[in-house]
Structures are given as C-alpha cells and as structure tokens.
Amino acid sequence: MTASAFVEIEDVGFRRDRRVIYDGLNATVPRGKITAIVGPSGTGKTTLLRLIGGQLKPESGDVRVDGVSVQSLKRAELFQLRKRMGMLFQSGALFAELSVFENVAFPLRVHTDLDDELIRLIVLMKLEAVGLRGAVDLVPSELSGGMQRRVALARAIALDPEMIMYDEPFAGQDPIGLGVLLSLVKQLNQALGLTSLVVSHDLQETLSIADHVIMIANNRVAFEGSPAVMQSSNDPLVQQFLHGSPDGPVRFHFPAPALEDALS
Amino acid sequence: MIDWIAGVGRSTLSQVSDLGRASLMLMQAIFGRSNVGVYGRLTVDQIYAVGVLSLSIIIVSGLFIGMVLGLQGYTILTDYGSEQALGQMVALSLTRELGPVVTALLFAGRAGSALTAEIGLMKATEQLASLEMIGVDPLRRVVAPRFWAGVISLPILSLIFVSVGCLGGALVGVSWLGVDSGSFWANMQASVDFFDDVFNGMIKSVVFAIVVTWIAVYQGYDLVPTSEGIARATTKTVVYASLAVLGLDFFLTAVMFGEI
Amino acid sequence: MYSRRLELSVGAFVLLGALCLAFLALEVSGLASTGDNGTYRLSARFDNVAGLTTRAKVSAAGVTVGRVVGIRYDKATAAAIVDMEISQDFAEFSEDTSASILTAGLLGEKYIGLSTGGDPNNLADGDMIYDTQSAIVLEELIGKFLLNMSSEK
Ligand SMILES: Nc1ncnc2c1ncn2[C@@H]1O[C@H](COP(=O)(O)OP(=O)(O)OP(=O)(O)O)[C@@H](O)[C@H]1O
Ligand SMILES: [Mg+2]
Q: H/E element holding C35?
C-alpha cells in the first residue's frame, strides 16, 4: 500500500444478477491527481464509482478509501466518509423541489453551521465557477440537461471535499462549456489538491488533463498508467479504443447470440 | 372596529401557526436526535402534503356518506317505527367502521400513491443516491418525515370524516326527513360511548395509518427505478394498502367489539 | 410568505382535528352529560332480564338518569341483579321506587324505567330496589296466546 494512493481497488469481483461486471479488478487512484476512467459504454465505470462511494458492495476483494475498507463500514461511518467525497451523477440528480441556490447550499446546510450570509457567498462563488450565477433562482426543471449537470457540479464541490468523482461531466456540453469545465476540473485539482476521478467518453480532452488513466474493458482493467504511456501503448485493445475502430478485442455489441441465429 | 377585527384575526392566525410549530416541536421530541429541527420541519411540510391537501376529498366523502346513511337508515328504520334510532345508527356505523376504514382507503388512494410515486421518482432520478453521496441518510431525510406525517394525518382526517358524517346524517335525518332533533342527538349520545366507540375507532385509524403509510413509503423506496416500475409500485401501494386495511379491520373489529 | 402559510395551514389542520375530537366527545358520545357531579349506585332484583345489556340506559319519566353497569345472577334467590349508576343530579328516588324493564319501540333495545313512589325517605348509594317488573319475553307471550287459543276450542 503506497502512501500516495487515495483509493485502492484490490481483486474486486462484482456481478449484476448473474452477469459478471468485474472479475479480479485491480486499480489505484493516486492522491491529489486527476485520474481518468475510460472504457466502452456499459463496462461498469459508473459501477466502479458506486463501489468506491459504498453504494454497492463488491462480491469479493477489497475497496479501500484512504486506507479504510469501504464495505466493512457501518452505515453511520459510511455517511461520515462520504462527507469527504463529492460525486457528480451521470444524470445530475438535482433535488427537484429545491431551487438552484438551495441545491448548491444543501450540503452546506446539512453539514456545516455556517450562517446564511456565508452560505450565500459560497453558493454564488461555486455557481460563478460553473458559469450559472444568473440561474440561481431557477428550479431544476427550468434548466437544460447541460446546465443541470453544471449545477450538480457546483453542488458536488460545495463542501470542498477531498475527492470528487465526476460521472461524465462533459456529456451534453457545448465546446465552450466543455473547455470551461475541463479547466475547472484542472483548477480544482491544482488549487485544492483534490483527488479527482473523471469518467468520460471525451477521450482526447480528458486525457489532456489527466495524470493517470484506468481503462476498463472485458470485466477487468485493460490499461492503467499515464496518458503518455497509453498513447504509445501497442496493446491492440488500447489502440482500438483510442482510434475508435469498430473491430478488435473490445466488443461493441452487448453479449448476444449470433445475429443469424437470432433472426432465423 | 375594522382594526379590532383585524387584530382578532391576526392573533388567531398567530396562535394557529404556533400550533403548527408546536406539532413541529412534538416531532422533534419524537425524533430526539441531532438535526431534529430540520426533520421536524420536513415532517410539517409533509403533513401539509398528505394531510391538509387530502382535506377536501375527506370532507366531501364524509358528508355524502353521512347523508346516505341518514337516508338509508331512515327508510329501514321507519319500517319498524323506530326512526328515532337514526342518530344511533349513523353515529355507530361512522365511529366504529366507516370512519376509520373509508378514510384509510381514501388516504391510500390520495396520499399513499402520491408518496410512492414521489419517493420512486426521487430514486429513479438518482436523488436518493445523491443524498447518500452527500452523506445524508435518505431513510431519515426522505422516508421518515413522510412516514410520520402519514401516521399523524390519517387519524386527524378520520376524526374529521366521522364528525362531518354525523353532521351529514343529521342534515338529512333531522332537517329534511323530519326526525325530531332532540331524540336524534339524545339517542346518539345514549348509545355511543366515547371509549368503546370513538376511542376504539381512533385506535383502528392509528393502526391503519401506520400500515398504509408504511406500505406507501416502502413501495416507493424499493421500486425498480423506471417509469414502469413507478406505475407498478403506485398500483401496488393502493391494492396492498386497501387489502391490508380491510383485513386488519376485520381482525380489530373482532378483538374490540366481537365476542370471539 | 410560503413557509408561514404552510405552518398556518398545518396548525389549522391539527386544530380542526382537535375540534372534531371535542365534537365527537361532547355532541356524539355525550361524554359531558354523565359524571358531571359523580354518580351513585343502585341495584334492582328482577326475575328475568332477557335482552337487557350493560350500558343500557336507565330513565325516569323518559329522561335518561343513568346507565346499567352490571348484570349478575344471584344463586340464593335464583334472580338477576342489575347494577345501575345514577347521576347525582337525580338523587331523589324514594325508597318505594319501582323498576321495570321496558322496550324502546316494538323491537328496540331494552332499558330500565324507574318510577318514584311516595315514601319520604330516599334511596342511597348501594340500595336495592325490590319492586320490579321483569322483561316481557315475546316468545312467552306468544306461547300463552297460543295456549289460550287451543283451550278455547
Ligand atoms: N441496476 C442495475 N441492475 C442490473 N444491471 C445493471 C444495473 N445498473 C447497471 N447494470 C449493468 O451493469 C453494467 C455496467 O453499468 P455501468 O452503469 O457501470 O456502465 P458504464 O460503464 O457507466 O456505462 P456508460 O458509459 O454507458 O455510462 C451494464 O452492463 C449494465 O447493464
Ligand atoms: Mg455510466
């Protein structure tokens, strides 16, 4: 166990119903760095974030966050640990009945004793960072999908956590928004020393800010290392993914009987 | 003069909202742990959603059921020349059976299904998961206030239902069909016992409240987070809750009023 | 203001519930009319109490003055003893008061009617009424009627 690892995933096995998602997954997320998690759709990137957050429990193996086994924690301890993590959900997951302001203020209200004035200041700062200070009085249903995700990002960083997990923060963003978010992720990481985990399909952009890459494919880690090493890797799996070729070791199709058999 | 009326209005309003805050405090006492202020507040919000907003359907149904009882009871009782027993019949059927049962069934349809759908949608849109990741237990933040609100609201609604029903019976029996008002009420008072009838009816209502709300929040929390899953769970809430109410009612009646 | 209106309506809701409870207690179950000034207990011996139940009302001159609280069987005399609680407001029943079991309407419920006599002394807590008239049992009446019919033939 290296001192610089914030999250360690050791020989994790996980299944949904009977379908194997992971079979002996090993990876580490270095402390204070940006780690990109990439891989084909449906390989279990979101699942990995949920394992780290303790929302799912592995069938075998060990997930350690800051040296603590997540699956062995009691409910209350788990909630305590989660205060140190922020998570941006793939769908945004804003609280529908609260305004944008209250959504971002929510973690502050439940976990701190700050007075209203200070909370207001922090919320406006966070919203400014994602470029949505003007939307402060709207409710989530009045926002576009991309805007919702940015508000959710502001909420995830409201408490200044030690680690943030972004599940596809760039999806649905226009090129300008994407650029802003990219530099925001980078800034948060550099200014606050945040450990950042970014799941994204915008491969080149993500790799440009990442210090560490974990690629998941075929139930296991297909590649782990720095982006530069990944680019120059001659593993056919990695190459196929980087260049987006439909044929190769990674199956684009969800497991199924051969098409001819299914049609006949 | 106008000032005086406005003053009375204001002080009444402030007393009533005090009562709202007092029930909030009671909630805090029940929860009695950290952050109680917030959870009491949430419970009051939910009492508004499941209780206050169900008032109109409860009052209208109570009125009509009381009126129907008055009408039917009158035609049957006149055959035996004992229409003075109308008050007794209306009040006993309402306090013992119809009040608690019909209110619980209406509540399951009006508030229970809404609770299931709301919690289910929060699950489907990952709001529950996101609460968890913020470090807030959705069981305490989302489920508990809704549960308590249901448990508090349903007995109150049932009291209102029974009262309005008795008035509806009196309206038909006394004002329209001409049963003597004195013997209507005297007969009712002579045969209805506060502890045996009204109080037992309220116990039924509290039991129904626990069961119905519990089913509703559980179905919401446990559903498959898709639009079809929500539709299915909402239906389940209404069906299971209604069956549970009717089954439990037989059991409770047997224990309370029967000689079995 | 949103939150104040909500508080207000929840408060009003709870208040409405309390009012309804009071209404049910006072108007519907007449809780206040009994036991205002306390009660005292009288008993009466009947040969037959068929159809009388506890909680049946006790009335005098058509006014409800109390309630039946217990019915038991007395082995020694092979008769039924009915215990009644009478409100203190109606404390003046003479010692020669008679009690009869009456029926409200043809098929209505049974109740006890007290009619006071002329004795200057009044009944006190725990006293027994001996001058009683038992319940009319419909089957016996019909039986007698049929017997008369057949003997007339
Ligand atoms: N609630 C669930 N029940 C059953 N199977 C599930 C559930 N959630 C996800 N899965 C399965 O688990 C696998 C991994 O899902 P996951 O959401 O982690 O994928 P992902 O890598 O995040 O994909 P994407 O890039 O499309 O978001 C998928 O094949 C999916 O079918
Ligand atoms: Mg995903």
A: none
Q: What is the pLDDT of residues C39-75, one digit of tens each?
A: 888 888 888 887 787 777 788 887 778 888 888 888 8
Domain boundaries, chain B: 66-257
- Span B198-209, pLDDT tens digits: 999 999 999 999
Testing ligand 1's pocket by substitution, the residue of A23, A38, A45 carrying the most ligand atoms inside 8 A of its CB is: A45
Q: Return the pLDDT at B153.
A: 95
Q: What is the pLDDT of residue A2?
A: 46
Q: Which residue has the CA at smallest separation from atom 30 of ligand 1? A: A42
**Topology at the third CATH level for domain A1-84+165-170+197-264:** Rossmann fold (3.40.50)
Q: What is the pTM of this model?
A: 0.77
Q: Which of B35, B121, B129 sits opposite A55 (nearest CB)?
A: B129
Q: Does A91 touch chain B (CB under 8 A)?
A: yes
Domain edges within chain C: 1-32, 39-143
CA distance B125 to B139: 16
**Radius of gyration of the CA atoms of chain B, in A:** 21
What ipTM did this prediction achieve?
A: 0.81
CB distance from A252 to chain B under 8 Å?
no
Q: Tell me, yes or no, if C106 comes closer than 8 A to chain B by beta carbon.
A: yes
Contact yes or no for B86/B242 (Cβ under 8 A) = no
Ligand 1 proximity of A200 Cβ (cutoff 6 Å): no
Contact list, B226 vs chain A (CB under 8 Å): none
**How many other C-beta atoms are found inside a 10 Å radius of the C-beta of residue A249?**
14
